[in-house]
Amino acid sequence: MSLVIDVDEQIQNFLKDENKMSMLIQGGVGTGKTIYCQYLIAQLLESRQIIPIYITLPKLQNWEKQMVEETLQELQLTPLEIQKLQDSKTQLLFVVDGYDEIRSYKCLYNTNNLLNWNCKVIFTCRSSHIAGDPSYFKYFIPSKFDRSLAFQEVVLVHFNDQQINDYLQRFVQKSQTELHWDTEPTQTRFQVYASQ
């Protein structure tokens, strides 16, 4: 038996819950953690519900203490603009991708002083990086906060063949109606894939 949840709905619940500070999206290699986060950023930018900032940990020099500041500088913000953003009441969402890729077991919430920002944080991490550690949540929330109140997580898994087929069929139908593509060749290839 498997439990299927709507990740978008889980994210919206996380964003609305004033007690939740941190969310972990975990999954195996290739389950779509990074792609989902990029999709999420695009959706949130369009909705203007919150200001999302995408942070790619492996690309940063000082991820341990300056991940936000370094990312904002890469986005061409000056130190003064960064300070104004930090001091403002503007609600931010830091989407921190690739925790497993830095090969660390530090609480970046603490080391980056994220309590000094008006923010929520979503981390991504491969499940294998935290497997076997029953208290892995401590890497994703400030130490003085209650896990049950401040932390939420979602586990992504690979699609099975039926889910892939259903997705491809919906994509083809949407493409025909919304994008006005000639999808007959693509649909034929999907049908061949589905019949294998």
Can you offer a commentary on this structure?
There is one protein chain. This protein is of the alpha/beta class. It has two domains: 7-156, Rossmann fold (3-Layer(aba) Sandwich); 161-195. The chain has helices at residues 7-16, 33-47, 63-74, 79-87, 108-111, 127-130, 147-150, 161-179, 184-195; strands at 22-27, 51-56, 92-97, 119-126, 151-156. Helix 5 (108-111) links the parallel strand 3 (92-97) and strand 4. Helix 8 (161-179) packs antiparallel against helix 9 (184-195). The longest helix is centred in the last third of the chain and has 19 residues, at 161-179. The protein is globular, with a radius of gyration of 19 Å. It starts with 6 loop residues before the first helix and ends with a helix.
* Main sheet overview: 5 strands, parallel
Low-confidence stretches: none
Number of domains: 2
Task: Write down how many β-strands occur, each being a DSSP E stretch of 2 or more residues.
Answer: 5
CATH top-level class of the largest domain:
Alpha Beta
What structural category do the secondary elements indicate? alpha/beta
Put simply, the count of helices is 9
State the CATH architecture of the largest domain.
Answer: 3-Layer(aba) Sandwich
CATH superfamily of the largest domain: P-loop containing nucleotide triphosphate hydrolases
Give the helix level as a range of percent: 40-55%
Mean pLDDT: 84
Strand content: 15-25%
Protein name: Pentapeptide repeats-containing protein
Domain NACHT: 23-173
